[in-house]
Design a protein that fits this description.
This protein is mostly beta strands. The chain has one helix spanning 3-20, and strands spanning 23-27, 32-33, 53-55, 58-60, 72-75, 82-91, 101-112, 115-124, 130-137, 142-148, 158-164, 167-172, 175-181, 189-196, 205-215, 227-229.
Length: 230
C-alpha cells in the first residue's frame, strides 16, 4: 500500500471514529414519568437534591421549596467535553412571583451520593437574572461565575448554553446574554434542572423540549428512540 493510500485510509478511519463518537439527543418529553428516565437516558444519583419529572410535554421539578438549594436535576451520559444544549421554556399563565422560580441547563455535569459538580446556567421566570454557576460538590456549595438578565423572557423562548474548552456562552432566542471562562471541569454531561422556593407549583416553570449535542465522547448507552448517535 502506498503512503498516500495509507494516509487516506488513516484519515478515513479517524473520521469514522470521530463520527461514531459525536452525540445528539433530543426529546419532546412525551408521556408521564417521575422520575424522568426516557428509557434510561437520564440519570440522577445525588441523594441531597430533588429529581425531575415529566408530564405530557413538560419537564419540571419535584421540590417542596423548603429544602434549601436542593435543585431538581437530571443529566445524560456519553457526551464529550465540548457540548451545547437548548430548551424551549414553559411558563404557566399564573406564576406566583413572590419567590424564585428557575429553569436550568447543565453542562459537564456529574454526581454521586452527596456530590454534584458541573456548570448550571439558570434563567429566572421573569428574566430578572440569568447566571452561570459552578457547583462545587456538597449541597449549597456553589460559585456564581457570571450574572446578567433577559427581562423579556416568555413562554416558548429558547434558552441555549454551550461550553467549548473553558468558554461558556448563554443566549436566548439566539441573542447573547452572558459568557464566562472557567477551567475547573474538563468532563461531564449536559442536563436540565429547576429551582423554586416555597410558592407556586413546580409545574409553573419547565421545559417543553430539550436538545443536546457533543463531540469526542463515547456512544450513548441504552439509547431510546429519541437518541441519535451520529
Amino acid at each position: 500500500m502506498s503512503r498516500l493510500i495509507q494516509t487516506i485510509a488513516a484519515v478515513a478511519l479517524f473520521s469514522a471514529s470521530q463520527a461514531a463518537t459525536s452525540q445528539t439527543f433530543t426529546t419532546e418529553f412525551d408521556g408521564v414519568e417521575n422520575p424522568l428516565s426516557e428509557g434510561g437516558a437520564w440519570s440522577h444519583v445525588g441523594l441531597d437534591w430533588a429529581k425531575v419529572q415529566k408530564s405530557n410535554g413538560i419537564a419540571f421539578g419535584t421540590q417542596s421549596g423548603n429544602g434549601g438549594y436542593d435543585d431538581s436535576y437530571a443529566y445524560l451520559s456519553g457526551f464529550g467535553p465540548d457540548q451545547s444544549a437548548s430548551a424551549k421554556v414553559h411558563l404557566s399563565g399564573s406564576i406566583d412571583g413572590s419567590c424564585s422560580h428557575e429553569v436550568e441547563i447543565l453542562l459537564r455535569w456529574s454526581d454521586n451520593d452527596h456530590n454534584a459538580k458541573g456548570y448550571e446556567i439558570n434563567m429566572s421566570f421573569n428574566g430578572s437574572y440569568s447566571e452561570i454557576v459552578r457547583w462545587n460538590g456538597a449541597i449549597g456549595d456553589f460559585t456564581r461565575l457570571q450574572s446578567g438578565s433577559y427581562p423579556s423572557i416568555k413562554d416558548g423562548d429558547i434558552l441555549e448554553a454551550s461550553i467549548a474548552g473553558d468558554l461558556i456562552r448563554v443566549s436566548v432566542n439566539g441573542n447573547p446574554v452572558i459568557q464566562v471562562r472557567d477551567s475547573t471541569y474538563a468532563t461531564g454531561n449536559p442536563g436540565i434542572g429547576f429551582f423554586r422556593r416555597a410558592c407556586g407549583t413546580n409545574a409553573d416553570v419547565g421545559f417543553q423540549n430539550f436538545t443536546a449535542t457533543g463531540s469526542n465522547g463515547s456512544p450513548i448507552p441504552a439509547a431510546p428512540t429519541n437518541v441519535t448517535v451520529l
